[in-house]
Amino acid sequence: MIHFALVCDGGHAFDAWFRNAGDFDAQARAGHLVCPVCASADVRKALMAPNVSTARKKAAAQQEAGGVRASGTAGIDEAEADTPPQVPVPSPAASLAAADPRRSEVAAMMRALRDTVIRNTENVGTGFAEEARKMHYGEAEKRGIHGETSAREAHELREEGIDILPLPTLPEDNN
């Protein structure tokens, strides 16, 4: 897993975890990344300072932690498995939640909306665009569906006059 600080074109900062850097790139190209504040799909990586492990940092962290180590070193090479955990720094999303207590309420409402749509519609998977077109042009029975499509396909569907909406997602949902 890799953690990225992200920012939208509106200047809202947030963060998210990805399986790898390529996963971020693929999701960004497909238009699957959206700002949790303004829902902008114009999301890019923000500048991040690297956390370089040095012998001095290791010794200071061990002394500070009293020699206690956290478990869960999956994905860390053997040399780094000895490194004590870093002191967590609140993410921009967590800072935003602390600054505005209504954010938790809005996030819960967004999850409830998404869950209701998923529960009450048919999952057509990656065939979403094709099925939406069939229904729009009378080739298939009209019904509620959900699934996956690329940003390009979604744009083309809208240009054809086919009403679609993305299901709300929150950065925390991917953790």
Description:
- Helices cover 39% and strands 13% of the residues.
- It is α+β, with helices and mostly antiparallel strands.
- The strands form two sheets. It has a three-stranded antiparallel sheet.
- The longest helix has 18 residues, at 102-119.
- The radius of gyration is 21 Å and the shape is elongated.
Descriptive keywords:
175 residues; two-stranded parallel ribbon; 5 strands; three-stranded antiparallel beta sheet; alpha+beta
Brief sketch in words of this structure:
This protein is 39% helix and 13% strand.
The residue-averaged pLDDT reads: 75
How far apart the termini lie comes to: 10 Å
Strand order of the largest sheet: 2-1-3
Radius of gyration: 21 Å
Task: Summarize the helix and strand pattern as letters.
Answer: EEHEHHHHEHEH
Major sheet attributes: 3 strands, antiparallel
Number of strands: 5
Structural class: alpha+beta
| Shape summary | elongated
Beta-strand portion reads 5-15%
Q: What is the number of helical segments per DSSP (H or I, 4+ residues)?
A: 7
**Which segments are poorly predicted (pLDDT under 50) over 5 or more consecutive residues?**
65-90
**Helix percentage:** 25-40%
Secondary structure elements and their pairing?
Elements (H helix, E strand, L loop, with lengths): L1 E7 L4 E6 L2 H9 L13 E3 L9 H11 L12 H4 L10 H8 L2 H18 L2 E4 L2 H9 L8 E3 L3 H9 L16
Parallel strand pairs: 4-5
Antiparallel strand pairs: 1-2, 1-3
